[in-house]
Specification:
binds fe (ii) ion; Dehydroquinate synthase-like, alpha domain; globular; Rossmann fold; about 400 residues; 3-stranded mixed β-sheet
């Protein structure tokens, strides 16, 4: 029986309070001539970009800053603006950028991955939608993460909205994996409450979807279960007090572990449905996941082995030998956490229009996260799930 599992991660991951201090050592060996920083104006005003500028200046590395990521939904326009900026830089200085440093949350990392890819592969980022369409390495990327989180700083995914089709594209290739990820909780203390909530519950959906995925392995299982234990204990604390460094640090680890799990096990219907909502409306990605997760979990539960449901329930704090009780407890725990984080309970409160459900469902069937869901449904099933969460 063929049953193989590749395990993909950045070659280097700097982790923990003060991890950013290790970055100069890493850069020393690169013989860099020019760096492009990809970020947004908020990261500049928080002083995070200046931290990196100081490091580059101390090593006499020249750099430019593209800060044209204007809102938290990554779009083809931002990627194209970044490429225009990058090409203008080439014309003026006649030197190639040989490193991209993204600073921020998932949106900035995903846009930077797309810019780095198109810069060397050519065409448009739309050409690479789907799995393994990229044929060459992009410009190497270092991703300095400020949320906990999308996991984007260490994954082989780039999620970009094609505004012309209103589709949130999933682009997946090992070539998208950043060369170095940096997760330093000091960069996470300024996350606003709603970002802490939305990105934190995204970690729950990553861990649960990776755990129940058809591509799960004992490695991704242990990462996913440990991530869940941490989120349920420390997300309420970091939501209540953003300066609670211990809680921020534990959430940072939860983000890394869930990111490692889903990067290698894949995701499921929660994400393929949330991606489509992100193509149509403006609510944060994690908020859509928070609402969809209980409905999708209940739908999937008949296809998840009983022992695995019981283990998942145990990770959330309750030991039971009754599977249907465990399903109820898991759904309840997710729902209570969503409510604690003040995220609405229905998609209608997040902009969903009933008349869009059919199109959203058809688009969800084409999302690559569809294929690793434990229960394969039909168009009508996806429509019913959107309607139940409406
Ligand atoms: Fe996500």
């Amino acid at each position: 029986m063929e049953n193989t599992h590749n395990f993909i991660l950045p070659p280097k991951n700097l982790i923990g309070s003060g991890a950013i201090k290790d970055l100069p050592n890493e850069l020393l060996s690169w013989k860099l001539s020019k760096v492009l920083i990809v970020t947004d104006k908020n990261m500049i005003s928080l002083g995070y970009v200046e931290n990196v500028e100081k490091i580059l200046k101390s090593l006499f590395i020249s750099y430019d800053i593209f800060d044209g990521i204007l809102h938290p939904n990554p779009t083809v326009s931002f990627v194209e603006d970044g490429l225009t900026y990058l090409n203008k830089g080439l014309n003026v200085f006649k030197r190639n950028y040989n490193l991209i440093i993204s600073i921020g949350g998932g949106t900035n990392h995903d846009c930077a991955k797309a810019i780095a890819t198109v810069a060397t592969n050519g065409g448009s980022i739309i050409d690479y939608e789907g799995y393994n369409k990229i044929t060459k390495l992009g410009i190497p990327q270092i991703a300095i993460n400020t949320t906990a989180g999308s996991g984007a700083e260490l994954t082989m995914y780039s999620i970009i909205v094609d505004e012309s089709r209103k589709v949130k594209m999933v682009i997946s290739s090992p070539f998208l994996t950043p060369f170095i990820s940096v997760n330093d909780p000091i960069f996470m203390t300024t996350m606003p409450k709603e970002v802490t909530a939305s990105s934190g519950i995204d970690v729950v959906s990553h861990a649960i979807e990776a755990y129940v995925s058809t591509e799960a392995s004992p490695i991704t299982d242990s990462l996913a279960l440990e991530a869940l234990k941490l989120v349920f204990e420390y997300l309420p604390r970091s939501y209540d007090n953003g300066n609670d460094l211990e809680a921020r640090e534990k959430m940072m680890f939860a983000n890394i572990m869930a990111g490692m799990a889903f990067n290698n096990a894949g995701l499921g219907y929660v994400h393929c449905m949330a991606h489509q909502l992100g193509g149509f409306y403006e609510q944060s990605h994690g908020d859509y996941n928070a609402v969809l997760l209980p409905y999708v979990f209940e739908f999937n539960s008949v296809s998840i082995p009983e022992q695995r449901i019981l283990k998942l329930c145990e990770a959330l704090g309750t030991i039971t030998h009754n599977t249907s009780q465990a399903v109820g407890l898991i759904i309840d725990s997710v729902d209570k956490l969503r409510s604690k984080l003040e995220i609405p309970s229905k998609l209608s409160a997040m902009g969903l229009k009933e008349s869009d459900i059919e199109t959203l469902s058809q688009n969800a069937l084409k999302d690559i996260c569809f294929f690793t869901n434990p229960r394969q449904g039909l168009l009508e099933d996806i429509i019913s799930l959107y309607k139940a969460a409406f």
